[in-house]
Design a protein that fits this description.
This protein has 353 residues and is α+β, with helices and mostly antiparallel strands. It contains nine helices and 14 strands. Helix content is 29%, strand content 21%.
């Protein structure tokens, strides 16, 4: 399959990540996300082709990148059977290295926490940008699982992550809020103060925000995400959005109950349109499509077939560095435990709001 190359000058920092490691990139159109990763995550994404029921609930896997020492060029190869990573300085696939000898010494490096920094890797995956169809996406990252480490984790990592789980909602509820971005309106301060907002009008919530909650208070985090106090989006629309998230979560739950896998430290990515006018337009486009009609203005704006349809909301399961299929071991109760509690909280928001 044809090779597509990116020069690093064509890649920009991806600013719509609510959590995770630094170093995520995007192309200038915003169509894709380039995420540095380990081989295990590439392997998992490639394996999902054999699990079609899960595919609607994960970002579309476009290909892989070789991030080598050349400071100017990285190359992408669209996924295909037997595809290899391409080196930026070569036009042909790299030949697989021979398997290591059974008697070769194994050197173990001491584990050290990354604290959200860049991971050391020459590999990256290219995924669809889930936030692409949104003008002002509100984004929430919810890390799933009471157990956050896989079987390969060294004792020091297990101990650290178990401590995090014990001190947060991860242990009792099977999830915690890992990060969040909500659009509050364009920052207009002229005295250099933006009242805690970024230059583009977003309020940012880092991992420490989610770690402050207990099982009895974590609902407040979801209320902050949906801006229920400020009602930046009208309540009727919010109710529709939350109900759509619930439908997606229930559908994902059914799929995961049928699969035999272990997805440690995977996350739920929630996205919805934070700009009230853009949200109104998105609902209008949906209504017209359902009715089989399109307004003149909408038709003119959609002449570019590559331009994504405006989004209302999206839910994806992400982060598969510690995920694998486990035939014969049953469903992933660790993941489903957290997913069930997220559903309960959103159901409570619909009832009360």
């Amino acid at each position: 399959m044809a090779q597509k190359s990116f020069r690093k000058s064509q890649l920009v920092a991806f600013n719509n990540a609510a959590a995770g490691h630094d170093g995520v990139l995007s192309d200038r159109t915003g169509a894709v996300v380039v995420k540095p990763c380990c081989q295990a995550e590439i392997d998992f994404y490639q394996s999902t082709a054999a699990h079609p029921l899960l595919l609607p609930f994960i970002p579309t896997f476009i290909g892989t990148l070789a991030l080598n020492s050349d400071p100017q060029v990285v190359s992408a190869l669209t996924p295909t059977a037997g595809a290899k990573l391409l080196d930026a300085d070569q036009a042909t696939p790299i030949v697989d290295a021979p398997p290591a000898l059974s008697h070769a010494p194994v050197v173990e490096k001491a584990w050290a926490p990354s604290n959200g920094g860049k991971i050391t890797t020459d590999l990256a995956i290219v995924l669809e940008n889930v936030t692409g169809p949104f003008k002002k996406p509100n984004i929430l990252d919810v890390k799933l699982g009471a157990r956050l480490w896989d079987d390969e984790a060294p004792p020091a990592k297990r101990a650290k992550l178990d401590k995090v789980a014990e001190e947060t909602t991860s242990k009792p509820l099977g999830f915690r809020i890992a990060g969040m971005r909500t659009w509050q309106g364009q920052a207009t301060a002229t005295d250099g103060k933006t009242n805690g907002l970024s230059e583009d009008g977003y309020k940012l919530y880092d991992k420490n925000y989610g770690r402050q909650f207990s099982a009895s208070t974590v609902r407040q985090g979801f209320e902050d995400f949906f801006l229920l106090e400020k009602a930046a989006v009208v309540k009727g629309s919010l109710r529709k959005i939350i109900n759509r998230f619930l439908e997606d979560l229930e559908a994902l739950k059914l799929v995961l109950e049928r699969e035999e896998s272990r997805m440690y430290s995977a996350s739920l990515l929630f996205v919805y349109e934070g700009d009230p006018e853009a949200l109104k337009d998105a609902f209008l486009v949906e209504k017209e499509e359902d009715a089989g009609t399109t307004s003149h203005e909408t038709h003119e704006e959609s002449d570019d077939e590559d331009e994504p349809k405006p989004g209302v909301q999206a839910l994806k399961l992400i982060d598969f560095a510690h995920a694998q299929w486990t035939p014969g071991q049953g469903r992933d109760e660790n993941l489903l435990h957290g997913l069930g509690h997220v559903i309960e909280i959103l159901e409570g928001l619909v009832v009360s709001k």
